[in-house]
Amino acid sequence: MSASPQFVATPLAPTRGVVESFDDPRGLGSVRSEGGTAYPFHCTSIQGEVRTISEGIDVTFTVVAGRHGHWEVAGLQATDSSPSSESDERSD
Fold it and tell me: How far apart are CA 74 and CA 31, in angstroms?
């Protein structure tokens, strides 16, 4: 008998989108890509030492094969154009 082939998940190219929802107590959220597809994510997918993110933030992420064969987000990161990274200071 020969060994069965193994599936190797290859991440897709980095994608841009917006955080559509985030449930802080559960650590679960969803991101809508620029193409209109929604992908789930867990707070451990957020880059850096934070485990929370605001809804409406522009982000970049990678789509990977997750548990049970569903696509999910990895490497979620706020972009420089996000409202959270813009300065609220205005000069008059």
Answer: 11
Sign of CA dihedral 32, 33, 34, 35: negative
Residue 86 clears pLDDT 50, i.e. is over it: no
Residue 45 is assigned to a structural domain of this protein: yes
Report the alpha-carbon distance of residue 31 to residue 2 in Å, rounded: 41
Specify the 3-state DSSP secondary structure of 13: coil
Mean pLDDT across the stretch 11-36? Answer: 93
Percent of the chain with pLDDT over 90: 62
Beta carbons of 55 and 43 less than 8 angstroms apart: no
- The domain spanning residue 65 has which CATH number? 2.40.50.140
Structural domain span for residue 38: 15-80
